[in-house]
Design a protein that fits this description.
Layout: H1 23-45, H2 48-71, H3 77-100, H4 106-127, H5 137-155, H6 163-196
Length: 219
């Protein structure tokens, strides 16, 4: 089954509409709403099992909204911006929560924030806002790895047998995701600089076109 670019129909042009009320956009809103629920479950209730389930639902909507958008031609200009913002805020808010709860160390949060901070500053310097760059395949893979590793890490806090296996598996995914995060950021830094100086940001592979990028690209 195709995970990256799923739902895209070969030969059909990808057009971003002005429509606001679409199913993919509603799913993105659900992902936004999952963040405060996760924070409450972890910090107030210490319900790690339910919190992990919330993360799984949030991660699922990240894939499903992109599939629906491409499959049923519901890609929107709003979603193009809102979807990657939802991904970023979700990953960072969840990381902050886990640091406060003592599940991860501060360096994990720093490893997520530093590349994003650099990209934000460059985007503001060159474009005064969103750089509107082509989506990166490594960025999609990175987001997927982090979205899988985070609930596994939360599950490792449950008082049940086998939590050590969850912990090891979580850090395999998270470690690979962090490496991909820095590689994607490095590529985007140079893409922003090239575009900001009047050059080309680089071609966008057809397989990467679509709504759900999870990396600040097209949606």
């Amino acid at each position: 089954m195709k995970f990256i670019g799923a739902g895209a129909r070969p030969g059909r042009s990808q057009i971003h509409h002005d429509t606001v009320l679409t199913v993919p956009n509603l799913l993105t809103v659900v992902r936004f709403l999952g963040v405060p629920l996760f924070v409450w479950l972890v910090l107030a209730e210490r319900e790690y099992g339910v919190a992990a389930l919330v993360l799984v639902v949030m991660a699922s909507t990240d894939w499903v909204d992109g599939y629906i958008a491409r499959r049923f031609n519901q890609m929107s200009k709003l979603g193009r911006v809102m979807d990657p913002i939802a991904d970023r805020l979700s990953l960072i808010a969840v990381a902050v929560t886990l640091v406060i709860a003592g599940v991860v160390e501060w360096w994990y949060l720093a490893a997520l924030l530093v590349p994003d901070a650099v990209l934000l500053l460059l985007s503001l310097f060159y474009f005064r806002g969103h750089p509107d760059l082509p989506v990166s395949r490594i960025g999609k893979i990175r987001t997927g790895l982090l979205l899988v590793g985070t609930p596994l890490l939360v599950l490792s806090k449950l008082p049940v047998p086998g939590t050590s296996a969850y912990f090891v598996a979580a850090w395999i995914f998270l470690g690979a995701g962090l490496v991909g995060h820095w590689i994607a950021a490095y590529n985007y830094v140079w893409a922003i600089i090239r575009k900001g100086r009047g050059g080309s940001a680089g071609p966008q592979p057809a397989a990467d076109q679509g709504q759900n990028t999870g990396d600040g690209g097209c949606r």
